[in-house]
Amino acid sequence: MSSPLSKLSKSKILLLWKHWDTVEKKIKEEMIWLERNIDTFLDKEITAPKGCRECFLRRIAILVVSGKVKATEITKSPLLKSFWINKKVKKNNEPKKRHGSDWHQKTMKRIENHFLCLRYEIIREPDLNQGRADLGVYKKGKQDLLIEVGTISLFKFWRNLETMKRFTYLIVPDDNKLIEFRKN
Fold it and tell me: What is the mean pLDDT of the chain?
């Protein structure tokens, strides 16, 4: 199931803003979709400045409803074993930065190998405007890809969507689904 607004054009999205009740309904639908599809660290964002889970969900939903960010849910086909190429690539000078569960580490390694096979540059835990992503994937002429594996901070996620330009934020909540947020 994709984001409720993923199929609407930007001009149709802008028309929604003329009717506040329709807009509020769309924001609520988007918040419900976000809540169902994104795992977060905590119910409250204790590291965020005076914020709450619903506040950040609403802010992210507004970015999607306004058309500033496009959100898409990508579900793995039952015939597909993995989203990622299963080929090992040896990386020189592999950093020892590690965090998260065994699943988190294995998934990061599979994603990293996938993009190395495709000749992308990979940076583990790249600095963002707010915090870090798990992986940064870069190639000249391609839009930057920031990847979060497992749980995320809603505050960090919203802040980066709000302040950064031209990138894709990919959230990997589990082995069967990806959530893509594209900002042009």
Answer: 85
The structural domain count of the chain equals: 1
Return the closest-CA partner of residue 144 out of 130, 127, 131.
127
Instruction: Report yes or no on 1 lying in a domain.
Output: no
Beta-carbon neighbour count of residue 36 at 10 Å?
9
> Look-up: residue for tokens 């920031």?
146
Do residues 67 and 13 make contact, with C-beta atoms less than 8 angstroms apart?
yes
4 located within any domain = no
The whole-angstrom distance between residue 92's C-alpha and the CA centroid of its chain comes to: 27
Which pLDDT score is estimated for 45? 57
Task: Tell me the chain's radius of gyration from C-alpha atoms.
Answer: 17
For range 78-96, the mean pLDDT: 68
SS3 88: coil
Q: CA-CA distance, 39 to 37, in Å (whole number)? A: 7
What is the spatial distance between Cα 173 and Cα 180, in angstroms, rounded to a whole number? Answer: 11
- Read off the pLDDT band of 173 (50, 70, 90): very high
Exposed (0-12), middle (13-18) or buried (19+): which is 19, by Cβ within 10 Å?
Answer: exposed
69: domain range? 10-183
